[in-house]
Amino acid sequence: MSTTPANHPSAQPAAPAAQAPTETWSSSARETSQNGGVAAPPKEKRDQQTAKAKKSSKLPSWIKDNLTSARSWRIVARCWVATWANFVLMIPGPSLRVLGQAAFFGCMVTLMIPPCYPFFLFFIAFSLLAIGALVGWAWGCAAAAAASRARSVEVLQAATQRVRSSAASSTNPEAYVALAVFKGEFLDVRSTAVFGVFLMLACYFVAVLQVKLPKLKIGSIFVLILVDIMATYGPLFPYARYTLGEIFMIPVGCSLAICLASQIFIFPETLAHAWQLGFVDMLGTNRDLIRMHESALADVSQLYDPLTHLDPHARGVQPSSDLLRRHRQAEDDAAKIATSLLADVKANRSALSEQNENLDGQITFLGMEFYRSYVSSHAMKSAFRKTRTVSLQLTLLNSFWRLIAREFGLADPNTYDENWDPTKAEQGYLIDGEHGTYAQPTKDRLEPIRLHETHTIHRARRDLFTSEAAQQVPMSRMLNILKGVATPSLDAAGNSIQALQDYFDANLSWRRKQPIDQVIHQLHETKTRLESARQGLFNDKRLELLQPYADHFRVLHPDLDLKEHFLQTKGSIQSFRAGGRPLHVCLVYVTTLLDALDSILRLHEEVLNAADRAGSKKRIWAPKHLGRLFAILSSDKHGSADGLDRFGSGDGQFEREEAIDGEYREDRAGSSSSSNSSSSNLSGHFDGESDLDSDDGETRAATSRSSRPTDEEKNTGSSVSSKKAKRERKQRFYARDPDALPPTNIGHRIGRGVAATYYFVTGPTGLYALRMCVATFAVWITAVLPHTADFVYQHRGLWALIMAQTAFALSGGELIATFVMRIAGTVAGLLYGAALWYVSTGNGRGNAYGIAATTAVGFVPLVFVRVWAPKMLLLPSIMMNVSFVLIMGYSWIDTHLQVVANSGVGIGLAWKRALLVIIGMTVALIVMVFPRPVSSRSLLRKNMAKVTRQLNDLFADVMEAWIARNRIHAQETERSGFANQVAVDEEGAGSSSEAIDKLWHEREPVIRARFMAIAVAIASYPMQIGLATMDFHIRGRWPSERYVEIAAIHATILESLGAIVSSVRAFDQLPTPAEGDAIKRVTASSETRMSQNDWQVLLSSSTSLLDPQHLAEICTMFDLLSKALKNGERLNHASFLLLENHFKYAHRNGNIERFLRKRAAVERGESEQNTTDGEDVLSWGVLLDPMYLRYTTARMASLTLVAQLDKFKAIVQDLVGESSLRGFDMLKEQYDERSYRVAAAINNL
């Protein structure tokens, strides 16, 4: 007999579970489908019609949706009233004289922070603005006082005498003195130097604050604005002018009063109400994704042609080449549909990521206000956390569509290079290995990376396609069956999410569209239907996927019993594993769908329990947790939805370089351990971390199990032990440094402090702040020089200074992007403002009624765009609004108020304003570029290296949990050999299950938090790649195609790790089939019923993931790729494909397992022929076992993991190069071929 050699594809993951053929369970499945499926309500049909109507529109969705939303127009009305009122306030002469020459600033501030936010968030935002302005004013006053003391009395007296003598001979002495002040007649070098020092200190501090605490960005901007005013105009005056800040503070105060009044009296809205509206939209986005999957399944199911079936009675007939070609064409069409779906899913997940970011930024403020609702803020937070899990589980459904799209795997025609020849050099190169060292110039787009098709991979692919053809079960047929299997569950999931939306809609509505009791009753009904659909899928519907293989067996063996003889030979098992790809690909979808249904069910139960506790009457909830407000605002967490970190360049989507390189730089100077830094990366992703205090006792009892174990231990610790712990000296750990051991004396600790300061000053944040100081000084110095002071003041040079400070970015790509957006927004606003000015005034000085009426109409589109523009258009929309107000405001002020500097009106003012913006942006650009720009491409590469390292950490966490879980079982087995059998069954099993539960209770929150953190990082890749594309490309074109491939690989690896941990976790929570289920009916008589531990052993040996050698190779590969990406260092060419080793180790482990079983049987005195346990036998009952779903999914995920790592390595090698070893490929191929022949010869002995 011939056996499978080490590198034979039979070691490939087994095909997923099969389907039962009997009519009994088929009819039962149809009944379950009818009972569990829910007809689409009319509302969903209207949603579908609305979606079709939206598709035909060419307007962006953010315009189209808000134009048809009544709530959107209510918010626009509130903001419009506040904006127009602030503008109208400066039109009358008395109020204009009070507001001064910066009267338009109140309207500008209203457009920068419009009252579109809920009252609580708006009050916080404006409070930060006011506090920042006051701090800047105070700092400016301190600078004025210090400069007044430093001013030379002799120089001041001489300048005063000189100006007085000249003013005495002028016709208007007061005007002459005012002109003399701004011409720099009273400038003093020492006083100016003091102002400059204060300005530089404030600028450095604000720059650091913007990087470290992005939520305080808006406040820090106004600190700079007020300091700029005091430091730019202060040196010009002969004495300290502490009231210069009133120029901006009076308009800011008026703006605050008007905005607060509009918030209170014009469609007021609480944060809880606004947050729930966003939450409903987030639920809708997830429901849209479910509908996408339904539509895609319907599309791929139509590709199946029943006429392509072989005649069931034609025994032994092989499919013709034409039939195989048609099957292959159907699979290609399915791949196109899957590719299109993945693109739609990517857009859907991008929208969901932004919604999640918005809600996550607001959720920390929930419960800090008075609000009226059925449910408390704690229940809202719990529902949000469950919804994030639902979103992640729905994202894992992509793994199935990636298999259909053939993005990777043995069946992918584009993954492997079939024409690769190890004896020849690569195409275009003369010497073998030269391609890994040097790259050829090309203007064409880079082709996707293709792996070498080695002899091992070639045999695996050949046997795969041959076995699939022999099985005569095409992918199109399985997809047609899958559609019927999954549709009822998808319908039930969609209806469940719709019911949740209806409940929150009822909570938001002031007028009940339907009684709340009816809404809660609908929640109960949809929950029951969802449970029924989930149970039907788990017990009955999934078995339909086995029907084609059962039919094929009956055709070949009509006289044999299916349950007794199916897959009872080694050859048939190998053929089934190699050719059952269509089956186990479909079972991957079933498994991930079951996980998604479970997460939706948990979310549904969470909301339903809260609804049942709340009853049918709303209550008013009092504010809580206000003490956390300062900690929230002082956190360095990005992505708040309160608008506090989105002005200027504050939301560049790039992680700071020092955060990426922390373990290489600052950690060596500081004392934080790697574990602490690692845990800090996961902060914000633990379930229950945002609000451990409940709003009532019932909620506390219901949700206490979701809190973090560490917090529970801290809360339950006794006061005596805590006091003792305080008295004890804490042991400090330091990150390992190859150049220095941990400090042992005070000198070492001082040295570490000095090193940390040096690293900070010379690091990215320090250089960023230093560059801002240089740009500030370059523009500011022109305003305090005697020869240029008058020119700068006459042409409003202060705005060039403000623009230079706010135009800074952390990277080159972000700088260019903001440069383009600022210029575009400025030009659009200036042209729009000039046009409206001439419409309202013509060539005159302006008419109060005309300009009021014109701006009343002109503000409508500006306010609409400012309020509802997406994040990418937020900066140009702000610049457009600010430029519009500057044109209209300065034009009106210069014609109706006596001012020293008159900039003109209309278009004459517009080009001066545009020039100021260009000057400020140019200064920022020059300072950012020289001496060395911060590369967005380098930041992206290092960020991807960090995510690779985090994936390695996640993989290690999963493997650690798996190993620890198996160790508990092994210890229990060892104890059972010495204990009484009854005690083992009753007590030992209980202790083992309790230990495993405790293990998962400790490990699962960390794994989930790490998974979410990586998912968030991967979701930011498209934005980062877009910014990196806009970076300076002076050395050559940036290979964006390769980084897009890396982004896809990271997403796929994350999905694979999620599938592995879900499958391993599921083995410890095997659900018991209900009485009368098809599983029990079919498998009750089966003698092959595998225990949970058997599945674990089988999975461990067949996937090779727990093979120490393979495990070490995977971890090493992650580490090498991370370091190569970060440092740009070459990789070594001499290495094996992980996929090849996966096959070899799986085959070796299988042989070892069989040998040990046979030896154990001989020791027990049994015949070796009866030792049919293990992976050599796949009976019909084993295929029907529900755990076979998990087993197959884990095997598929392990295959995907190693295949993606192979592709990842090839991409990194293409980017950084490789150290060649000429002749290695040919030597390896010869060695593998020799090993294959020897193994085949030994098996034939």
UniProtKB/TrEMBL annotation:
InterPro entries: ArAE_2_N, BRE4-related_DUF2421, Memb_transporter_dom. The chain crosses the membrane at residues 75-92, 119-139, 192-211, 218-236, 248-267, 823-840, 846-865, 872-893, 913-934. Pfam families: ArAE_2_N (PF10337), BRE4 (PF10334), FUSC_2 (PF13515). It is a multi-pass membrane protein. Residues 723-733 have a biased composition (Basic residues). It is found in: Membrane. Residues 1-21, 671-683 have a biased composition (Low complexity). Residues 1-57, 662-740 are annotated as: Disordered. The keyword Transmembrane applies. Keywords: Membrane, Transmembrane, Transmembrane helix. Residues 59-547 form the Putative ER transporter 6TM N-terminal domain. Residues 778-927 form the Integral membrane bound transporter domain. Residues 931-1219 form the DUF2421 domain. Residues 22-36 have a biased composition (Polar residues). This is ER transporter 6TM N-terminal domain-containing protein. It comes from Sporisorium graminicola.
